[in-house]
Amino acid sequence: MSYLNGDAVDVAGFAYVEAEPPGHGRLRFAPDDFRVEEICDVELQGAGEHLWLWVEKTGLTTPQVAERLAASLGLAVRDIGYSGLKDRHGVTRQWFSLIWPIKRELPAWPNDPDCRVLEAARHGRKLRRGTHRANRFEIIVRDIEDLDEADLTARVSRVRGAGVPNYFGPQRFGHGGRNIALSRALFSGRRLSRGRRGFALSAARSLIFNAVLDARLRADTWPGPLRGDVFMLAGSRSVFAAATTDESWDSLLERAARGDIRPTGPMPGRPGSAAVRPTDAAAEIENRVLTGLSEFVDGLSAFGVDAERRALCLPVADLAAEVAGRDLRLSFSLPAGAFATSVLRELVRVEDVAAHG
Fold this sequence. Notes:
Blueprint: E1 4-5, E2 8-9, E3 24-27, E4 34-39, E5 50-58, H1 62-73, E6 80-82, E7 91-99, E8 115-123, E9 134-145, H2 149-162, E10 164-165, H3 179-187, H4 194-218, E11 230-233, E12 239-241, H5 249-258, E13 261-267, H6 280-292, H7 294-302, E14 308-311, E15 313-314, E16 320-324, E17 327-335, H8 340-344, E18 349-352
Parallel strand pairs: 3-18, 4-7
Antiparallel strand pairs: 1-2, 3-9, 4-9, 5-7, 5-8, 6-7, 9-17, 10-15, 11-12, 11-13, 13-14, 16-17
Helix pairs in contact: 3-4, 3-7, 4-6
């Protein structure tokens, strides 16, 4: 396993669609080089006991922003809602919510350049996790070297048409990819804090999914479909197995080509009564990988994590790329839960400057 070295996961070891890109540069050299904007389709009502805040943060995690808002306004952190966790390294805009009685005047927002409230609107409900639909990225890769512009143009065209492998990014595996050491410690009986336990479980599931996706790429069965696949309906979490549908294989192929459905890989855990499993060729690849990583599969099941499925392909139809001197400027949108690094790795190799800070 080229991607697993002892207790460290090297995401560069996971397979590419074709070859590793020749160009390389520096990512997140400055916060403004990595901009993320949350796309949330909720229509705010303009009335209600909750204030929704459109916040721009720089150099802070999402929980850190929640803590600053709570401290500034005299609220408990549990009263601050947000939809998704955004990376600390960059400039991001996302929604937060807080309880604020209708009769109270709007508060004075924190005078904080790293946490700026850009807009406030009332709504009847608290913002819950997973509410946003997507994220919009604007990224600059600096000091590009060895870039073949013809190769880049071909890669951009391919990504727009076929998407990219839906890998979990290096964030899931911690500094130096070593959260897998936490997974092994947890599954061997060591007691961990709630936060570290979450990191351990997340790293284990992400490793297994990435390993199955890697195997599909190396077997030249990505983006698929493959006989026996479990499919996910586009824009939803609903899945069904090819083996349990009356729909013809030719029809499934046509729907997959249109992007209506996508083959999935495993997010292992406790198999429930409604678990959907692959069969035939898809099961052969998946089971081989799961057997090789049985310590993590068994550990996730023992800790009662619910088994799920995740699409193997990540669509990026709106990808735009521009070379400006020695900089590569990229913009694209991704559904919630997807990683921008999965797009970047198919276009250019990067040194993440922020990871060394």
